[in-house]
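Summary for the funding panel

The consortium committed to producing paired sequence-structure records for every protein in the target list. Below we show the first two records in order, beginning with the earlier of the two.
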Amino acid sequence: MAELVNVDNRGKCRRIVLYGNPVLRTPAQPILELNQDIEHLIQDLLITMIKKDGVGLAANQIGIPLAVFALNPPACNLDRPPLCIINPEVVITEGKVEEEEGCLSLPDIYEIVTRPEFVRIKGLSVEGKPLHMEGTGLLARALVHEIDHLRGILFIDHISELRRKLLAPRLKQLEEMERQICG
């Protein structure tokens, strides 16, 4: 069972990078040491995810290519507080299901994506202890979505080429917005 993290006011809400920012395509580096910088990153991830009403949020979505993501179980109708998972890996997947999916880095884009029906992952808690988590439905989708982010994969990479071509004007808009923000 995953260890939980208390969300407090030590973190700050960060800007979520948009499609087109290279960090979204950068595979995250594993976290080798838990220190104060990682603790701050974890608090920032949790605060940002909650304030932006996300189901999950990977560190590279706030511009930090390190292997950690925040997860918001209440958004999946689970009675558990938000938590962070460090160096997550998928252990087992079973079944497939198609559902609509979106992403905080690609606002207002929703597409049908095929994801595992069940997933089991492993990683580390914020205390550095082994952590195992499994889920179905939206929880499974969120776990795989965030691990994809840490590998530089976006949910639109799982849709057809035709659907990506249809999204091209919106994706260009997002790229331009990100370019203007980053200068």
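The next record, for a separate protein in the list, is shown here:
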Amino acid sequence: MTALRLALGLTVALGLGVSAVAAADKPDPVADAKAFQAFFVKKFPKVAFDDFVNGPYSMNEDMRRQWEEKEQFPPYEFALEAGKEMFSKPFKNGKTYADCFPNGGIGIRQTYPAFDATEGKVITLELALNRCREANGEQPYSYVKDEMASLTAYMAYTSRGKRFDIKIPDDPRALQAYENGKEYFYTRRGQLNFSCASCHVQSPGERIRAEILAPALGILNAMPIYRSEWSGMGTISRRFVTCNSQTRAVPLEPQSDEYRNLEYYLSYVSNGLPVSGPGARP
């Protein structure tokens, strides 16, 4: 066992109360998800399970009141309208996004990311949308700009209320992708020496400057999100890149294997929580 793996196992054990030896030596995503969810439920006994998808608004009553008022005229509404129009508009060859996805792309957000057995890698919804565009002769969209956020906002909206149902097939490559995502989540990096878990497992509910940190449980269920800080919409890719920048680490390329595996891990341990996207955050 490498020093990194040992350190990782200890971090997981300290954070989630599970056996370091068991976590490091025998990967068990089902047990991981159970321990992960139990940790947050115990840490925040007043937060209803489904409410974890509302991030900081589940942690602070004042922020929640402001958010509920804002939701009467949600700031992401423009993206929903744009995404719906983009989704139904035919490509130059006459086909649409609906031709690329099961159920015509409606109500499927809760099944992404998924593991592709042919490719042996994790496929996110953002990646699948761009592959759909390229397969139909269209240029791919930026993973961090408005078009991708609008498309995923509309697709998330059609899945609202459906519970995350991420699968890890009986394939060692899928299990390794999940383990790699888990390792990325708990590994410290950057000048601030923070891991993803430093903020979203150890410190949810606490403030960094004016921002209340969201719990890792359910953090992707609200994606994409409108952020006042951005004055616009952002994708999961944009959030990962921003988090790396905020810890003064070198951000990876959007949709790199590392980010896709991270999304796979974070989504899997939130199985059972409902899709709430698109969301809004300060």
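Regarding this second record: Strands lie at 114-116, 121-123, 207-208, 211-212, 225-227, 232-234, 279-281. Residues 1-15, 17-23 have pLDDT under 50 and may be disordered.
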